Amino acid sequence: MKLFRSLFLLSLVLISGCSTLNQPTRNVATVETEMEYVTVCDASNQCKKLSRLIMGTDHLVQADWTGNGQPELTEPQAQAVLDEAAKLGINVFDTSPIYVGGVENKLGKWLQSRKQSAAQDGFYYGKQSNPDRKLYALSKGGFYFDLFYSKKLESGSHSDGLKKALVALEIMNATAKPSPDGSIALTNVPPGTYASRLFGPKEQITKRVSEELGHSLSNLNNEITIYLMHRDDSDFVRFKENPRAKTEVSTIMAALSADELQKHFWALGWSNWEPARVNESIALSAKNSKLPHPVFNSAYFSLFEMSNRTIHAGGVQVTHEEMNDSQFEKGILQNSYSPLGGFSIFDKPEPRWENAMKAAKLKHDQGDAYWQNVYPSLFTPANNARYDRVVAFTQKFNKEHGTHYTIDQTINAYALAHKRTDFLTIGPITIEQLRRTVQSLKMARLLTDVDLEYLHSGN
Question: How far apart are CA 113 and CA 330, in angstroms?
Answer without folding.
Answer: 38
